[in-house]
Structures are given as structure tokens and as C-alpha cells.
Amino acid sequence: MNSKTNFFAVGAFLLLAQAGQAAWTATNLHPSTATKSYAFNVFGSKQTGYATIGGLSRSTAAKTTGTQQVGYVQTGAIVNAGLWTGSAGSWVDINPAGAASSFGLGTSGTQQVGQANFAGVTKASLWTGTAASWIDLHPIGATGSGAFAVFGGQQVGYANFGGTNQAAMWTGSAVSWVNLAPAGSTASQVSEVFENQQVGWATIGGAEHASLWSGTAASWVDLHGSAPAGFTKTFARGIWRDATKTVICGYGFNGITGRDEALIWTQPGRTVSGHVNSSGGRTLTSISIQFRSHVTSLIVGTPIVVPVDNSGNYTVLAPGLVNYDITVKPESFLRRTIQTNTVFGSVTNADLNLVPGDIVNDNVIDLSDYTKLVTYFNAISTDANWLIADGDGIRPYDADINGDNVVDLSDYTIIAINFNAVGDN
User: Fold this and answer.
1) Whole-Å CA distances, 276 to 184, 281, 363, 423
2) pTM of this structure
3) Domains located in the chain, CATH noted
4) Is pLDDT of 57 > 70?
């Protein structure tokens, strides 16, 4: 998340509703004494933004990772993007050469995004800490563009075509631009990104709807329908999640009170479960699962070790609500990768049909595996060297493919059946 600062706000009421087939709980954060309020970013249990009280904006939040802040400095009529690391003296001017002005609008700690103006054209911009590192993200054919947030190598914002803003995502270059504008929308924009999910808004039927994406236009989820009664338009500005929940913050116009009011949407975490089929290989009591984005193949978090019960079933808590792949590579099995889309609910049929025989664990069953089988043929679990690795890191135990404590003809048969098989990526 790119902005992590306290925001003073008290929830007024909750409403459980449906949004894009997924249940979201929307909370009104508007302070009772405020005339307007906005939530822009979220991290854990904290949301950032500001409330207008007595005509004055009493608090604001700039984008920060906790160690790096990004924004801009105005000197006379000149506005230059810049970044800080906690003090005024740490300021670094990152205005690109030739730009009339620039604004820093988001940071991941290593990358910064914003926009720069060249000859009257506003261009989405990416930096890595210096003015010289500037990368032009402006898509071909666009009349204007801007980037508001960056996380995990993804940059998000908008690109303007024909006078209309369209939600945009990049992965480091102008040619990587992805149009996230949902079907039927007349305008859209992305405000924030976190672990392969993006939030912002899309204009549907003449009204702005808070929106959630998972890397494609087709993944769009309309959050507007889960807002409390009376909200005629809504905007999503920040997103954060852990293994137990996803939290999105923003604001909307309350037609009943006639004012903008801060909002958050929350959704419980999702699980992935299924059956592990060892296909004649040794019985597994646990597996190590790695989640990664199905859209970008980017790794999400660290591997999670989960138990496999006596019936061969497993359950793991997904790190978020995303179209994931999960991949497993138990010892002496080929790698298995399957798609598990948790955007619309928990996944219960994520069966892992494994292929045994990869003794040397290079994700292919071939002559090298057969050679190790021959080397350790007739070895048994009571041998002194059963768990001692050779120069290639392989133990006699690894050649016992079916787990019956002896390397014999049954293990050879498994290799013969699966010879030349290659694991998933």
C-alpha cells in the first residue's frame, strides 16, 4: 500500500450486500461534525484521508511507504515532482529533463509514479528515485495520462482517449498499457493497486461506481451496489488485505444528507481446498503451496505449508480475492499448477493430480531418474545411509517413489509408466 497514515473517523452503520457475486460490507466513516469526508488509502485497520470541519480541511495524508514519501514542491510557478525519506533535507527533485512540471503521486518504496507535463501534454510517469530514471508510460494515441499508484511492479491510473479517461494499468513501460475500462462504462480511472488487485471508479449509466479489478477489464467488480442506502455515486481510493479480509476505502455522495462521505468496503478471506492424488507415489501428509497471479504470473507471498488429512484432502487460506494459480512441487513428484479464482468465493474443487517419479527433482522424469533408481535399487529404510544425500543431493529415500520403505520393481514400474513426463510451469 502506498499511503499508511491514521485517519480520524468513526463508523456510523453497516450494510451487507452483493457486489459482482461477492459479499461486501460497506461502512460509512463520516465524522458527525464534518461537512465532507474522504478516505483515500487503507492499511490494516487504518484508513487515511481528510474531513472538512467548519470549512477547513483539518488533516491530509500524502503517499508514503513508511520510509519514503512522494509528492511535489512548488517554487514560484514551477512545480517539480520529488521524494523524501523523512526529513525536509532528504528531498530529491525527480522532475524529468524537458518537463514543464511534474507531480509525484505514488510510491512503492523503490518505484515512484505520477505525471509530467511536456509541451502541454500530461504523461503518466515512472521513476526509480532520480530524475534521470524517468520512464514515459504515456500510451500511443492518448491525449493525456497519469499514474497514481504503484505496487509489485504494477502502475495504475488513467489514459485519456477522445476526451474520456479510461482506467489503465502498466508494468513498467508504455507498451505494457492495459485498458481496464469495463464494458458499458463511459469513463473510468484506477486510484490504487495492491497485490495484483486494483481499485478506482467507472461511470455507469451516468453515475460513478466504486470499482475493483484483478488485472483485466473482464475482472471488473461493481462495489457501488453494496454502498449504504442513499449513495448516488461512489469512488474507491485504496485497497489492502491480509489472509483474513480485504479492505477497500473511498467515499461517495450521500443523496440523503447532500454531502460526500467516507466509506470502506470489507470482505472476508477465501479458502482453496481439494484432494491430493498421489497417483501411486508416496502418501503425502503435507504440501507446500505457492500462490501466484494467474494474469501476470507474479508470485504472491511466500509458500504456505498445509496439512493433508488421511483422506488426502487439504485446505489453505488464499492471500486475497484474486484469480490465482497455485503450484506445488513435492519431492519426487512433478510440479503441478492449477487455476483457483477466489474473486467470487472460496474454491472447493482444486484437486491436485500429481505425477510421481521425479527422483532428482528437475521437473522431468527421464534417464537421470532411472539412473538414481538403479543406483539405489534394493535399498531399504533400515540402511544406515537411507536419509544421507549423495553428491547430487539425492538420498535412497528419494528413490522409494511409492513410499513402501524399499527401492524395488514397483518404483521402477512408476518411472516406466511416467517416463518423459514433464511438470507444469
Assistant:
1) 42, 11, 18, 16
2) 0.65
3) 14-268 (2.120.10), 270-354 (2.60.40.1120), 360-425 (1.10.1330.10)
4) no
